[in-house]
Amino acid sequence: MRSDGEPLLALHGVSYRYLDRFPALDDVSLAVAPGEKVALLGANGSGKSTLLKVLDGLVFPDEGVYEAFGAKVTDAHLEDEQFNRGFRSRVGFVFQNSDAQVFSPTVRDEIAFGPLNMGLHRGVVEARVADTLAMLDITDLADRAPYQLSGGQKKRVAIASVLVMNPEVLLFDEPTAALDPRTAQWLMDLIVELNRGGKTIVLATHDLDTLDVLADRCVVFSEDHRIVAEGPSADVLADRELLESVNLIAGRRAGERPCRAI
Ligand SMILES: Nc1ncnc2c1ncn2[C@@H]1O[C@H](COP(=O)(O)OP(=O)(O)OP(=O)(O)O)[C@@H](O)[C@H]1O
Ligand SMILES: [Mg+2]
């Protein structure tokens, strides 16, 4: 919690449907305190990515309220340039699919895009870009075209384009999905290090094995897009009945046989 006792991010009774038809979030309330690591868990289609989009101001609640840093985040407020800049510099979102996040002709341009957009001086931007490239160990990729990179390399570039803005809150959608074990471990270490450095982390994941490291608290969605449980990661992971009921672990149904070993 902040010194004034307010959470950093807060959702109050948020519901959202895509195209007014497809339910994605139903009466979701959630508070995230500064410095927390929160994991969103739930079956495919339960609403995790949509919640991250709400937290990043990419979609807006049909019902309910989203507040960040003590101010309501609405479509209208984000049209205000000063509010937009403030909010965008404080919250960063690493998408699941890096292809949707990298679009510049070179990696260097990609990473410089956000800071230049913020109106920072070219010299300051160049120094920040160089630092970020080094931090993510991708200096050798600086002049490559992002679309020509491998999935794991693109992920590093996408993360760099977010970290270069030095946001207080980092949102990750399925951070370790589709990464090789070494890269996944590197990213987990990075997330932990960023959190130790004071960043607040909210991530969506199916990878229950990473939760003891990546999350202090887990928030569990049901398949009907509601929050059905939240608590310390160890408690949530120990509740197999809960995990089965929300389709996070497979319970074998009566009469079903295990696969034959090959
Ligand atoms: N662009 C869209 N248009 C219409 N419906 C959508 C769209 N994106 C998501 N949905 C619907 O919203 C619901 C929540 O989707 P969301 O992507 O938030 O789930 P998720 O928990 O992230 O799932 P996954 O684990 O598969 O990533 C789903 O029923 C999905 O079909
Ligand atoms: Mg998702």
Write up what this structure looks like.
The chain is an alpha/beta fold and 262 residues long. It is globular. Helix 4 packs across helix 5 (122-135) and helix 5 packs across helix 6. Helices cover 35% and strands 23% of the residues. The longest helix has 16 residues, at 181-196. The N and C termini lie far apart (52 Å). The strands form two sheets. The chain has a six-stranded mixed beta sheet, with helices on both faces. 36% of the residues are buried. A hairpin with a 5-residue loop joins strand 9 (217-221) and strand 10 (227-232). It has helices spanning 48-55, 75-79, 81-90, 107-117, 122-135, 151-163, 181-196, 211-214, 233-238, 240-245; strands spanning 9-18, 22-32, 37-41, 63-68, 71-72, 91-94, 169-173, 200-204, 217-221, 227-232. The mean pLDDT is 93. It contains ten helices and ten strands. The structure holds adenosine-5'-triphosphate and magnesium ion. Adenosine-5'-triphosphate binds at residues 18-19, 22, 24, 42, 44-50, 204.
Brief write-up:
The chain is α/β, with parallel strands linked by helices.
Can you say what the CATH homologous superfamily of the domain at 9-96 and 167-245 is?
Answer: P-loop containing nucleotide triphosphate hydrolases
What is the total tally of β strands? 10
> What count of helical segments does DSSP give?
10
CATH architect. name of the domain at 9-96 and 167-245: 3-Layer(aba) Sandwich
CATH class of the domain at 9-96 and 167-245, anyone? Alpha Beta
Low-confidence stretches are: none
Strand content: 15-25%
Amount of helix: 25-40%
| Distance between the first and last residues' Cα | 52 Å
Bound molecules: adenosine-5'-triphosphate, magnesium ion
Main sheet: strands, sense, barrel:
6 strands, mixed
CATH topology of the domain at 9-96 and 167-245: Rossmann fold
Q: Helices and strands: which structural class?
A: alpha/beta
Cα-atom radius of gyration: 19 Å
Query: What form results from the Cα inertia axes?
Result: globular
